[in-house]
């Protein structure tokens, strides 16, 4: 089984600060990590390989330093990695990004399953996974919490819903975006890290992927970011004090006023 | 100066991490300046009121738990006054109530490094000095003592002593100095300290520095109000890993060989610690019977460091597939979190059970470590007590934590603790390597230095604190 895992390098959101004047992210000194949701996709890919044989190829579109994220994926157990990098990709929105990734997967050719995290922790759109499957014209299931069964031809998976889950049968090749309930990602191993150190990661450019230049970068992106701002913090609540009757009366009258 | 008398507010000053019960005080005074510390002490000395110095309450031996008198909290003495970087290393001048984590952050900004790395990052610098604390990285860097370049101490009569390392040295075992117009002559204890990491009793050595007398004195000789600490250059990069072993003996042998590689830390976890961690982290290999976490500085290339450890791990039969390594700062922090999760969870479990955990803080000479470990293993298995063994195996300093389920088991644990102490002493070890004696380990100190040694320490105390008001009940009874 050949599993392709798509990952993104993101700033560690626990460290991000906002410049109060420009309302933009201060990226200086902020470490880059693999999008936390993609870690579950990597783990699931490795588990499928461990069960059925084959290989896991991990790909990422990003600047040259995103090769560190790919190396981390190799240290966890992925077999091969490809970095998709080109200045022409700069400014791509989710539509253009999913187009580029789908072109890369077309170039990889023989794959059975594509795995993505449910969304990236920086953009939070959850659109790139579904976008890839649309560009490739293959079926997809989002929010997968369990792969119950999988063969060369089809899979049965559980899709997380707000209440409960759906069981979906789907023909392969297909794409899944996965949620954190699916597994517990392993830690990089020493053997994996040694392999990652030695790994030569091929870089694919827009030309290598035969990209239509009208469909990539800022120009190829239908989305426009009009404004970025920090939401105003919510005002603190009020703790009602007194005996129970007083509190209940107060609460009821406040709620009435709100209505 | 803040003064607190409300019982609900002062309750938190009556305890620390030792679970020592029964603490009481008439009031907590919180000086905001060194002059205020001085005036509090002067008044207390005149009125013969006992003064217990309070740090952050992270102590493990009841040192800050008061039994009468007043509590003097250093929490408002929290200024980092100066931090300076040289071509190599630097120094910081700071007050006693600065949190270790704040000091670390301040160092980070200057690309400097304070070596002390305890589980309790909210500990105060003053507390670390007063107990000569050490933590995991002392394997490479040594304990707090080595970094104390100078110290400002308020003595019991309120006089302030500013000491720089190298200025006042003992002649043999006699320390003479002058402060605030008074002449002091201290006859240092004659005992020989154990040749291990040690924070049991007063530091005493021929020709020693006066600064060293105040490091590890646990609030019995003076109130540390300010210090100058040496800093080193920040390690360029750290390589860290968790290695899992199929039996304890291979882990012990690996630790022994690892010392030669001079990493920053070598930390051991027994199978019970791994089970505890495994409840949260399902990637812990089921077959593992012990684990070692180590951190090494990458001075040349990471490849060279990895090759060194690969060789060592393979020699001891460790699967490289099963050895976790950090790929970046984030995974390194996750490792530290796992390392600290174990003692923190144990303390939580003890709190919930209602019976205090019974723990040890013993270090032996390195060549005797295996004897000690085998003694632990046999005694713990024989007594069938819930226990966890973990800690600084590089320094031959492991913590045995026993969690009794009832009073009968508690007594069994206490007996076993005493047996462990006696075994450590028979091997030339210490009774407290980093936590200090406080109020809960005084009996053990007596076993280490005998009645004579204790009396010699009391004589030192009387020279500096003639009315015996400071840290009463700590280290020894007066």
Short synopsis of the structure:
The complex is a heterodimer of chains A (259) and B (478). Chain A is built from six helices and 13 strands.
CATH architecture of chain A: 3-Layer(aba) Sandwich
Please tell me the total number of domains of chain B.
Answer: 3
Segments of chain A where pLDDT lies below 50 for 5+ residues? none
- Assembly state (oligomeric): heterodimer
Q: In what range is the share of β-strand residues of chain A?
A: 25-35%
Q: CATH architecture of the largest domain in chain B, please? A: 3-Layer(aba) Sandwich
User: What is the name of the CATH class of chain A?
Assistant: Alpha Beta
Output the structural class of chain A: alpha/beta
**Any idea how many domains of chain A?**
1
Query: In CATH, what is the homologous superfamily of chain A?
Result: HUPs
Predict the CATH topology of chain A: Rossmann fold
Helical content of chain A stands at 25-40%
Rg of chain B (C-alpha, Å): 22 Å
- Termini gap of chain A: 57 Å
- Overall structural class of chain B, as computed from helix and strand content, comes to alpha+beta
Please give the radius of gyration of chain A in angstroms.
22 Å
Number of helices of chain B: 13
User: Biggest sheet of chain A, open or closed, and with what strands and sense?
Assistant: 9 strands, mixed
Can you count the helices of chain A?
6
- Give the number of DSSP strands of chain A: 13
Helix content of chain B: 25-40%
What are its keywords?
heterodimer; A: 259 residues; alpha/beta; two-stranded antiparallel sheet; B: 478 residues; Uridine Diphospho-n-acetylenolpyruvylglucosamine Reductase, domain 2; Uridine Diphospho-n-acetylenolpyruvylglucosamine Reductase, domain 3; Vanillyl-alcohol Oxidase, Chain A, domain 3; 3 domains; 8-stranded antiparallel sheet
